[in-house]
Every structure is written in C-alpha cells, then in structure tokens.
Structure prediction request, 230 residues.
Amino acid sequence: QSALTQEASVSGTVGQKVTLSCIGNSKNIGTYAVGWYQQTSHGAPKTVMFGDSLPSGIPDRFSGSKSGTTASLTISGLQPEDEADYYCSTWDYSLSAMVLGGGTRLTVL
Amino acid sequence: QLQLQESGPGLVKPSETLSLTCTVSGGSVSSYRYYWGWVRQAPGKGLEWIGSIYASGRTYYNPSLKSRVTISVDASKNQFSLKLSSMTAADTAVYYCARHTDTSMVHFDYWGQGTLVTVSS
Prediction:
C-alpha cells in the first residue's frame, strides 16, 4: 500500500494531452513539492519534473502542478517515446520518510 | 555531468547481509547541498525508498526497513554505501542509488543505472 495514490494505467493517442495524478494528504503533498520519474521498460528511472522545475534535457511538453493534496504531471502533445511507467515522490513529515506512488503505466495508442 | 554507479554482489544467500556501494563522479558526496539515497524495485513492482544520507552522516530510513538498514558515506572515496541485513527472497530487487535535488529529500534528480540483487541459496 503506497502512501501516494496514482492511477494504475492511463492511455492517450499521439498528440493528445494527458494528465497523471498523485494523491496524498496534508502531511506529504499538502506540505512539500513533488518529483516525477519516468521509467521505460528495463531502464533506470529518469527525473522528468521536480517541484516546478524541468530538468535539463526534458522536453517542455512535460509540466507539473499541485493543488492541495493532489499533484499532477501533464504531458502536452503526447509522443510514442513517452510510453513508460511514471512515479511521483515527496516527503512525509509524520513518517519522517520519503514516500513514493505506486506508479502509472502510460500507454500511447 | 553527475554520474552514479552501483556496485556489489549480484547474488546473496538468505540470512546474509547485502553490501552495495555507489560511486559518485562529477560531484562530491561531501557537498552540504544534497542528500544521497537508495531506492529498490522488486521484479514487476514499483519503486521503494530505502533511505538517505547527508554529508554529515545524518541518515533517514524507511520505517519498514529501518531495523535492517545502514547507510554510510566515505568522502575519501566519494562513495556512499548500503548494508541490508537478514536478506530474504523478498529483498530480491534492482537497487538504485540517486542524488536528492536538495536537502529536503522530496525528490531525486540523478540516478544510477541500478544493480540486480538476487537472494537465493
């Protein structure tokens, strides 16, 4: 049981805009920024968003936002290479621990 | 460009202690700007945070693993290490080292390639 809740799967077509969500509570997402990671099959995770910042080399079709205790990763203009598993993370002060979501499998149709 | 590389045995026997090392290049584990952490992923499962360490040696561990985990830093070798005791088949996973973006431990920015550890007799 992950501390952060993500959709198990999301799908979209090439060029479409998709939004992945990460639901927490006041002790984690409600207080701290959120990171997002992309993991293609058999590969290491790659950071695609941390807080409001886009890491160097990540296309600007990726964007992040947060409202209350829910964070979102939006991909505008979906590309075939965006097909991957996506994970979110933050800190939880009641656990004094970093917490991660269970991951969302994004399929590009 | 910061690079992290995990090293250690690919096979560990049940009840033994796993020892992994993460070698950092292009940056310094002695920097007081970052925490450094370990994450694992069991086959077909999601990512699980194991713990993180600061240059001062201060550590934070996943409560579910705390009794079995020790993370340390060796500034002279620019490395940090993970020890996980009493290994069982449930600890079979790919183990990643990573750098937190800052001292908040909210997210990571750089990751290693990962190393597969199998627990089997």
Summary: Strands of chain A lie at 5-6, 9-12, 18-23, 35-39, 46-50, 62-67, 70-75, 84-92, 97-100, 104-108. Chain A has a mean pLDDT of 96. The longest strand of chain A covers residues 84-92.
